[in-house]
Specification:
The protein has 281 residues and is α+β, with helices and mostly antiparallel strands. It has helices at residues 3-9, 24-32, 39-43, 148-155, 172-184, 197-202, 208-216, 223-227, 232-258, 268-277, and strands at 49-52, 68-81, 88-96, 99-105, 122-127, 129-132, 135-139, 142-145, 160-163.
Length: 281
Amino acid sequence: MSNQEKKRTKLSLSSNVQYVKGVGPKLAQVLERRGIRTVEDLIGYFPRLYEDQRQAIKIRDLVPGSLVSLKTTINRVQKRPVGRSGRFIYELIAQDETGKITCKFFRLPYQGYFEPLIPGQSIKVIGKPLIYRGYLEFHHPQIQLVQEPTDVDHKLSNQIIAIYSEIDFLSPQRIGKIIQTAMQSLDESAVTDELPKSIRQKYDLIQRYQAFLDIHNPTSTDVRTLNNYQSACQRRFIFEDFFWFELLMIEKYHRSRQSSSIQIAYTSHWLQQYRHVLPFE
């Protein structure tokens, strides 16, 4: 690609998301329903979880309440009626060499959701296992079909994979690819850093552009740090959110101090009468 072609593909944070390669007007409408309208909204759609490919978790290792990405195989998919209501509970039974676990769906995520999920298909189950009526199971987890070439593309140069929440019919892999494309279309100069340098130095915060790069392409070797929101890139965005929130609160406070209010005059005699009416001292 020539320098002139590269220049034409460069985007700004305010660019409409439809101009990201691979999006277009129709897909932009889907993203807009999730509040993603600009490139900044898109790259601000952070991963819900990070998975270390070198530390595969098994069904026997599951702990209730822990957010996990579990690579398994589909044993079967079934639906059971709920009384005479006409509704169904959908169940996907997943298994690995250490056991089986049920993934329950009390409503159909969308029409045709279970059609590609057939016995023997490799999947990833993303969610929090819980104890329900004495059994460990998942409720409404995110199901991701495992396609090895796609996973390799997602790894980049490290073993940690960023996993995104689904948006309608968009798979986590496709969302990740769109975000990667958007990041490649941005220059560092396009991502302005409005946090003063003195503040960044005082609190040891990385620059905003670097934080976006690291949160979508993690280089940390400790996936627990990422999943506990303690990495440098996550600290940067958490600090930024609270920083602007506090400034907003300060501004509102000063506005309230400057605004005039109606003074209510009262006499001590009126106050004494009111106190006598109260049923307590």
